[in-house]
Amino acid sequence: MERIAVAKVGEIAEKGRKIITINGMEIGIFLVNGKYYAWRNICPHAFAPVCVGRISGTRLPSRVYEYIYGKDQQIIRCPWHGWEFDLETGEHLADSGVRLRGYPVEVDGEDIYVVIKQAVANQS
Amino acid sequence: MSDKPLLIDTDVHNSFAHRRDLLPYLPRVWHQQWLEDGVGSGLKPWSPIGVTKKDSLSPNGGSFANDPHTLLEDLVERYEIDYAILTGSVSMIGISIHFDADYANAVASAWNDYLIDKWLSVSPKFKGSIIINNNDPMAAAREIDRLGSHPGMVQVMMPSASRTLYGQRFFHPIYEAAERNGLPVAVHPGLDFGPPTPSGFPSRYIEFHNILPINFMAHINSLVCEGVFEKFPNLKFIAVEGGISWVAHLMWRMDKNYKALRDQVPWLKKLPSEYIREHVKITTQPIEEPEKPGQLAELLQMIRAEEMIMFATDYPHWDFDNPKAVLNEFPRGMRELVSGLNAARLYGLEAPVIS
């Protein structure tokens, strides 16, 4: 396993997200409720660049005609078909069996690192 | 004390300066819809994800589909597309439902001339659709005759929203002109001014989008039963953006009823499904996603629809079908037909020369 520096704490704090490339592989780095997450920028549905989608809250599961707003700034919506993914778990809200591919994130001082398998990191 | 009589104004229209002025009084769950759609237009239900896919919007909010060069780059080059059949915007396709037929005629002609001048001239990969106002069939026929021989125009375009069913004789001058010019007639969901279902309006966009094929089924049923394909044996009809698997149900049900009630339509010499198979093309998008890979292709093989299906992305809309994902659903022999051969044969397009 190898950890690769991808961003500074300051720059993510400002915009909430950054999309980086590690050896041709795009990954979105997100700050959600004070923690960092890294998700592959490919939607499991039809391979759209999911990490550029709008981030917002959503309407939580409820009773009929009941509306409950929640998970503010925690949900990303794929820019194509609108699939909602929870940025904390990577799960698709309409089907928890479908999820984004994620990578561990480490923070060391001002630096944010993504942890990638050695073989992938060394691909040229 | 004044002699002036009491004056009371009983109708003064005040309002807010900005939609956001209402937000403090509105529950959070409704904020996005209110800001984006206000009280609504009455015509089109609001979607929380909008109409255009988000990565085809420029920073100032304009769509890449509004300029031939950005469209070429964002779609044609990115996906290595050989030909892009340009259908115009949904609202332009829907010009037929405009109340003022003279205005609609003028706008449709203007669009067609603009398309030829500013789009078809940019790339040989662009092919165009003649948008007509079908509320004035004689004018529509003249427009088809005016532009039908232009090499860049490959079809006639109408909305699925209509005042009456498309098999009705009211529309026959259009089919006559299309057949005369060797052009298929394509129909696409447009702004509906009537209810999208026979029992009224769905409450939300998701419901509206779910059942768009209802109108396609109604029109194709009408075209077949009114004998349009007997009267115009060379006419082809395209159902665009309705998905595909409902064709199976329609064919089976129509054939069954034809065997019982043939005398109501004595001008039909073949099974309804045969007319559909020979005269109707269906575009793939938004492609259905059954539980298992291969099931969709299996259904289409059951009704021998291999030559009916043409691939489409619906770029730049949110329900865009990625060619790299969707075409893998079809087995090898069918894939080439869907991907381009069916369209090439229909539109008379040649494989581009590889330099």
Describe the structure.
The complex is a heterodimer of chains A (124) and B (355). Chain A is mainly beta and 124 residues long. Chain A has one domain: Rieske Iron-sulfur Protein (3-layer Sandwich). The two termini of chain A are 16 Å apart. Helices cover 9% and strands 52% of the residues of chain A. Chain B has 355 residues and is of the alpha/beta class. In chain B, strand 6, helix 12 (295-302) and strand 7 form a beta-alpha-beta unit. The chains are: A mainly beta (124), B alpha/beta (355). Chains A and B meet through strand 5 of A and helix 13 of B.
Summary, kept brief:
With 124 residues, chain A is mainly beta. Chain A is built from 2 helices and 12 strands, in the order βαβββββββββββα.
Return Rg of chain A in Å.
15 Å
Share of helical residues of chain A: under 10%
CATH topology (fold) name of chain A = Rieske Iron-sulfur Protein
Order of helices and strands of chain A: EHEEEEEEEEEEEH
Number of H/I helices of chain A: 2
Counted beta strands of chain A: 12
What's the N-to-C terminus distance of chain A? 16 Å
